[in-house]
Design a protein that fits this description.
Layout lengths: L9 H6 L5 H15 L3 H5 L7 H14 L1 H8 L2 H13 L1 H9 L17 H11 L12 H24 L3 H32 L4 H6 E7 L1 H4 L9 E9 L7 H20 L10 E2 L12 E3 H10 L3 H7 L3 E5 L1 H17 L6 H14 L17 H16 L10 H10 L5 H25 L10 H11 L5 H21 L2 H10 L5 H14 L5 H12 L4 H18 L4 H15 L3 H9 L3 H11 L1 H9 L18 H14 L3 H24 L5 H27 L8 E6 L1 H4 L9 E8 L5 H18 L9 E2 L12 E3 H10 L3 H7 L3 E5 L1 H15 L6 H17 L18 H15 L11 H11 L4 H25 L10 H10 L7 H23 L2
Parallel strand pairs: 2-3, 2-4, 7-8, 7-9
Antiparallel strand pairs: 1-2, 1-5, 6-7, 6-10
Length: about 1000
């Protein structure tokens, strides 16, 4: 029922989705006047993706010819159809503006989509075709063909837009679009035959065979609204006596060119789409038309792997049906035998990678078709699995993506859940693509970049309620597609490989290679070599490995780096040789095998150390063995080591091995969630302290003679080392101090310098570096590396800058003379806990903090992603806490601590930091600390920059306990935590 006039107020228009309300009201009034109805009638059925665009398009047509529009609006169903089509497509509005009479197609009821035969009949009728020849070969016939095509395309679009669930009709719509493309090719070929008959004998043209083979989406009957139609032309003769084959190929070539021109050439009515024959043998450099025998000769001798992949979807689309069928029958066996070629899967994967490389980085987040998690990921995955397994399983020799997924499920090559999700995501992406192409009837595969564009897409597709929601749906689908792309076919793969007898292993290995490549292994051939080396033979070890490998490799694949995990496992296995407990523990322990795969696939830091300390696998049998040993226990073992070695080199080599072993224990406990970040920091600090203490004992014994034994020497921890806050990969900031204590001053200086050099020499570990960084000493890198206590006192009282007093806040003696450490601590306390800090000193600290943020960040790094110096990260929290210590620790003893978080708690207790701000600062400090360690664990290298690559970010996130595929979640969490911490910092530090 029509609305009353008061229903067309501006608020009513807003509820209908209009954006430009005043313009819309004026346009509606004008349209109603042209149609001779009231505005309420015009708006009856006004459900449109973009109602502003809809009324503008209808008004333009009505201004030119109101009668067809008025006739359309006299019927309620036709009116609704008009609103839907005009609201979704300015392209169709332009078409109806050129041909107003064609708008009547929207009034024709369509209960079902037309068949391929019906569409072919309609377009052939449009050109008056009879027995393959059009009534005319002139330009008017081309225009008539294009108008008829677009009229029928509008009917298909109207059916599509009227669907309650466009995802459910996607397959039928895509098939109809391919069918109408085939019909257009058939009609254009009829026009071409008539056109050539003006210069050639008609009987020769009639006897010339030309089969148009549809490729890609056209061949698979899954075409878009606007897409290049990929074809291959096959020529021949139906009667050698009328026209020989050579002459027929020449005529067929001219027919092919005219057929393409009829659809793609410039005429009064715009082109439909490009007919692309670049997939033919030799590409654009090859002959446009070849005989069947010429095609087969080429495929036998010269064709590349990608050409066989392209042929997977080949189907006769137009022209001579018998020749088309003969072509398909001849090439199909070659398509599937191509998978047996050497490096076939490698070449397919490289082709996919090349497609990704050519994407404009600015377009990558919006690419529905070519980007990561887009349509190409689904299509390449399905096609690769078809080609690999279709050689022996004819059920997989299908064309369409959806029907091929069904065939893969029926054959047991993919699970029903994964296939169902893959199919749903494919349909969702295709519906989005269709709606975007309908908008201007243009070839596009990019998501909208504006809120208005996303809003229209949401309304036209019915996939979401808002622009924000459609973008979230897109991101969700992308993640699912990426996930399934890497997970498909994994479980059946390894069980089959491991259980096959020797005589069948060659076939299983080839299948395993292809499947591993298909799910994203970077080096499947190498992985299979490692599996073979581990499982080949008749020994008990090989037998147990064969039982273990199916499950082990599945777990490896669930991790971040399965390729490295597998090779590391092989090396560990080989290092342990026939050790009886190793494989028995992995086989019989409830969690050891899974824990080992998790460690190796998550952390190169752990894997590389385990390769050198393979007996560490035994710790996986009990979580207690993964807990850190105390500093006292490590120190006791180090002392025992030194008593067993006569030379300093041998002793400290063993101490370095002890350090590596305990670092590995801590790392394993961290990755397996046995330890908290606080426990990890304490363990790493105690390991470093024990190592330096052992080294100092040995070096001093080697360098300082008995007569100079009165000289005192100590190592002072600074920075995060002093705060007992070390992470994996952290430097050990230190100061060196000595007291001659009666020894000749120059002699003492020489001995102290030699001690420092000895420490650096013997603590150098190229496998797990221990960087003793003395840059926080007075005068920085320009100052002497070691000083007497008196020299420190003189410098700090006369020359020290505010940052040096600040640095002393974390000074803590860790090795050497306890008497000297006590005296240095007393000196440090007098500097770092002043009775009062003047205003100028506070300003200087704030100025230096601002300068550090501007100057010390590495060039080109996004400041927000720097975990140490970025806003809201470690330095913000630490500088704030240290400023409060300088200001108040003299009167508040609780602030006299080297620990950042302990001092922060004391500041809260004293009322200097609100509890809610402290919580934000604590969260940011802990998250930044965990991320720094996680990056080192994952890569085996130290970095202060949060990765941008989703694969790396996901791997780091897993180490922090995030679920798989949580890169974006981690990114958002980190940026949110640090942003909130930065606000709290600025309020307290600068405010």
């Amino acid at each position: 029922m029509a609305r009353t006039d008061d229903s067309v107020s501006l608020s009513a228009l807003a509820r209908l989705g209009f954006a430009e309300l005043s313009d819309a009201a004026a346009n509606l009034a004008e349209l109603a006047g042209l149609l001779g109805v009231d505005r309420a009638t015009v708006l009856d059925g006004a459900v449109a993706a973009d109602p502003d665009t809809a009324v503008d398009g209808m008004l333009r047509v009505a201004r030119r010819d109101a009668a067809p529009v008025a006739a359309l609006f006299s019927d309620a169903d036709a009116r609704r159809s008009a609103w839907r089509v005009f609201g979704a497509s300015t392209g169709f509005a332009d078409f109806f503006l050129r041909h107003p009479g064609e708008i009547s197609v929207l009034a024709e009821p369509m209960r079902a989509l037309p068949s391929a035969d019906e569409l072919r009949r309609r377009l052939l009728d449009a050109v008056g075709a009879h027995e393959g020849f059009a009534a005319s070969g002139d330009d008017a016939a081309v225009v008539a063909l294009r108008v008829a095509y677009r009229r029928n395309l509008a009917a298909i679009a109207a059916f599509d837009l009227a669907a309650h669930n466009p995802v459910m009709v996607l397959a039928d719509i895509a098939a109809a679009l391919a069918d109408i493309a085939g019909a257009a090719l058939e009609a254009s070929l009829a026009v071409a035959r008539t056109r050539l008959s003006d210069t050639l004998r008609r009987e020769q043209v009639a006897a010339t065979q030309l089969a148009v083979i549809g490729m890609g989406k056209a061949g698979a009957r899954e075409l878009n609204y606007v897409s290049d139609v990929d074809v291959i032309f096959v020529g021949g003769t139906a009667d050698e006596e009328v026209v020989d084959e050579a002459r027929a190929i020449d005529i067929a070539t001219r027919l092919a060119r005219e057929t393409m021109r009829g659809l793609s050439g410039i005429e009064v009515e715009p082109p439909l789409w490009e007919v692309d024959a670049a997939l033919r043998p030799e590409g654009k450099q090859g002959a446009l038309v070849r005989s069947l025998s010429s095609h087969l000769a080429y495929y036998d001798r010269w064709a590349k792997s990608w050409e066989f992949q392209a042929l997977l979807k080949a189907r006769p689309l137009a022209g001579d049906p018998a020749l088309g069928a003969e072509y398909i029958a001849a090439v199909q066996p070659k398509v599937f035998s191509s998978a047996a070629r050497e490096n076939f899967v490698d070449s397919v994967q490289r082709m996919r990678e090349r497609v990704m490389e050519y994407i404009d980085p600015a377009d990558a987040p919006y690419q529905l078709k070519l980007g990561s998690g887009g349509l190409r990921d689904i299509e390449f995955t399905v096609q690769l699995l078809q080609l690999v397994h279709g050689l022996t399983d004819p059920r997989l020799r299908t064309r369409g993506t959806l029907e091929s997924l069904d065939a893969l499920v029926d054959g047991g090559y993919i699970g029903r859940a994964e296939a169902g999700t893959f199919a749903d995501d494919y349909c969702i992406l295709r519906v989005m693509e269709h709606r975007l192409q309908l908008r201007e009837l243009s070839r596009t595969h990019l998501m909208p970049r504006t809120p208005a564009g996303l809003r229209v897409l949401a309304r036209s597709s019915g996939l979401a309620d808002s622009g924000e929601a459609i973008w979230a749906r897109w991101e969700s689908v992308r993640r699912e597609v990426r996930d399934i792309h890497t997970k498909l076919f994994y479980r059946p793969l390894l069980s089959a490989v491991a259980s096959l007898p020797e005589e069948e292993r060659t076939l299983s290995t080839a299948q395993a290679h292809d499947r591993l490549m298909a799910i994203g292994f970077r080096d499947p051939a190498g992985a299979l070599r490692h599996i073979g080396a581990l499982t080949t033979g008749l020994s008990r070890k090989a037998t147990i490995q064969r039982h273990l490998m199916p499950v082990m490799v599945r777990w490896f694949a669930d991790g971040s780096d399965p390729d490295y995990a597998l090779i590391a496992f092989r090396r560990i296995s080989e290092r342990l040789g026939d050790t009886p407990w190793f494989l028995r523990m992995l086989r019989d322990s409830s969690g050891a095998a899974e824990s080992l795969t998790r460690l190796l696939s998550s952390s190169r830091y752990v894997g590389e150390l385990m390769e050198w300390i393979p007996e560490s696998v035994a710790w996986l049998d009990s979580s207690d063995l993964l807990r850190p040993r105390s500093g006292a226990a490590i120190d006791e073992e180090a002392r025992a080591i030194q008593t067993r070695h006569e030379t300093i080199g041998g002793a400290l080599q063993a101490v370095r091995a002890l350090r590596r072993r305990e670092l590995l224990r801590t790392a394993m406990g961290g990755v397996l969630d046995v330890l908290t970040i606080e426990e990890i920091a304490r363990s790493l600090t105690e390991i470093t302290e024990a190592t330096i203490q052992a080294a100092l004992r040995a070096v001093r014994r080697e360098i300082v003679p008995v007569e100079d034994d009165a000289m005192d020497f100590a190592v002072i921890a600074m920075g995060r080392f002093g705060g007992a806050e070390l992470g994996f990969g952290s430097d050990a900031d230190i100061l060196y101090v000595y007291d001659a204590n009666g020894v000749d001053p120059q002699r003492a200086q020489s001995l102290a310098t030699r001690i420092v050099a000895g420490l650096r020499e013997h603590l150098t570990d190229h496998r797990v570096p221990l960087d003793l960084d003395a840059d926080l000493r007075p005068e920085g890198r320009n100052g002497p590396v070691v000083r007497t206590l008196d020299a420190y006192a003189e410098y700090y009282r006369r020359w020290s800058l505010s940052w040096e007093a600040q640095a002393l806040l974390r000074a803590r003696g860790v090795a050497g003379s306890s008497k000297l450490i006590a005296r240095f601590t007393e000196l440090a306390d007098s500097i770092r806990y002043p009775a009062a800090i003047d205003l100028q000193g506070s300003r200087e600290i704030k100025r230096i903090k601002a300068r550090v943020e501007g100057e010390r960040l590495p060039q080109g790094v996004d400041p927000r992603r720097h975990l140490k110096l970025g806003p809201g990260t470690l330095s913000d929290v630490e500088w704030l806490v240290q400023l409060l210590q300088l200001q108040h620790a003299n009167e508040i003893p609780a602030l006299r601590t080297t620990s950042t978080l302990t001092a922060l708690d004391a500041a809260v207790e004293a009322g200097f930091v609100p509890p809610e701000s402290a919580e934000l600062l604590r969260d940011a400090w802990l998250l930044s600390s965990r991320l720094r360690s996680a990056i080192t664990l994952y890569t085996g290298k130290t970095s202060d920059v949060l990765p941008t690559d989703p694969r790396d970010l996901d791997a780091v996130g897993r180490l922090l306990g995030y679920p798989d595929r949580s890169a974006s979640v981690l990114d958002d969490d980190y940026l949110g935590v640090t942003r909130r911490a930065r606000r709290a910092f600025e309020d307290l530090f600068y405010g």
